[in-house]
Amino acid sequence: MSERDDIYTRPHESVADFEFNSAVARVFPDMIKRSVPGYAETVAMSGIIAARYAQPGTNLYDLGCSLGAVTLAMRHALKNSDCRIIGIDNSQSMLERAGHYLALDDDGPEVDLICADICEHPIENASVTALNFVLQFIEPEKRLSLLSRIAEATCDGGALILSEKIAFSDSEQSIQDTLHHDFKRANGYSDLEIAQKRSAIENVLIPETEEVHRDRLKAAGFSQVIRWYQCFNFVSYLAVK
Ligand SMILES: C[S@@+](CC[C@H](N)C(=O)[O-])C[C@H]1O[C@@H](n2cnc3c(N)ncnc32)[C@H](O)[C@@H]1O
Ligand SMILES: O=C(O)C(=O)C[C@]1(C(=O)O)C=C[C@@H](O)C=C1
C-alpha cells in the first residue's frame, strides 16, 4: 500500500518549486494516481503498444521512468523477448524505489535502470521509447533535440509513446482546468492543496498544445502521429518512425 500524498497538507510559509525528491518519491504512486486522470490506463496501454512495435534484438526505453511503472508494463508484455528495457531517470530517489520494485519482479526481458539526464544520455538501437508525462518537465527549448535523438535512434517501424498534460485554446482551457480540479477534489485533495500544487509546478511543468506536439514530432523525424487516449487535459500519442 503506497503512502498517501500529504505534501501540500503541511503548513508552508511559501510553496517551493516542485521537484522529484525523496518526499515525492515516497508518495508518488498515490500522488500521480490522484493527480493524473487516466494514468493507470496510459501505463497499461504502453505495454500493449510496446508489444506491437518492439522488434527483436532492440532496446526499449522508458525515459523519465520514475518508479518504473511503464518499464514493468513493457517487460510483462514482452515476456519471451530478446529485447532489453532501459529505464532512465535523473532522480536518485525515484530510481532507488524503482530498483526495489524491479527486485520483486522476474517476469520478462533484462532491465537496466540508469540515473542520468535524458537530454544527455545516449539512445541507441531503439524500437520503442516511452515518455509518460515526462517531456512536460523538459525545458521547451530542449524538447526538439531530445525527440530528434529518439527518432534518429529508432528503427523503421518503431515507435514513441508520448503522454502529456497539454494546453488548449483559451475557451477550452478553462473548462479543462475545471474538470482537472474536479478530478483532484474527487480524489481527496482540498482546494488549498490543489492551489499549492498548481503554484509549485507552474514553472516546472510546461504544457504545450496538441498542434505544437504534432508539428514537433513530425519535425523530429516521426512519419505518423495519432492520439490514442485522452482524459481531460492529459493526452497520449503514438508516433511511428
Ligand atoms: C511525472 S514523472 C513520470 C512518470 C513515469 N513516467 C510513470 O509513468 O510513472 C516525471 C519523471 O521524469 C523525471 N525527469 C524529469 N526531467 C528529467 C530529465 N531531464 N532526465 C531524466 N529524468 C527526468 C523525474 O525525475 C520524474 O521521475
Ligand atoms: O497537473 C497537475 O496538477 C499535476 O499534479 C500533474 C503531475 C504530472 O503530470 O506529473 C505533476 C506532478 C506529479 O508527478 C503528479 C502529477
Automatic annotation (TrEMBL):
Keywords attached to this entry: Methyltransferase, S-adenosyl-L-methionine, Transferase
InterPro entries with a match to the protein in the record: CmoA, Methyltransf_25, SAM-dependent_MTases_sf
Reaction(s) catalysed by this chain's protein: prephenate + S-adenosyl-L-methionine = carboxy-S-adenosyl-L-methionine + 3-phenylpyruvate + H2O
Binding site for S-adenosyl-L-methionine: Y39, G64, C65, S66, D89, N90, D117, I118, N132, R198
Residue span, Methyltransferase domain: 62-158
Coiled-coil regions, chain positions: none
GO molecular function: carboxyl- or carbamoyltransferase activity; methyltransferase activity; S-adenosyl-L-methionine binding
Keyword Nucleus (UniProt): no
Any single GO BP term: methylation
Pfam families xref list: Methyltransf_25
EC number per UniProt: 2.1.3.-
UniProt key word Lipid biosynthesis: no
Record function comment: Catalyzes the conversion of S-adenosyl-L-methionine (SAM) to carboxy-S-adenosyl-L-methionine (Cx-SAM).
HAMAP family in UniProt: Cx_SAM_synthase
Protein family according to the UniProt entry: Belongs to the class I-like SAM-binding methyltransferase superfamily. Cx-SAM synthase family.
Assembly information from the UniProt record: Homodimer.
Stated name of the protein: Carboxy-S-adenosyl-L-methionine synthase
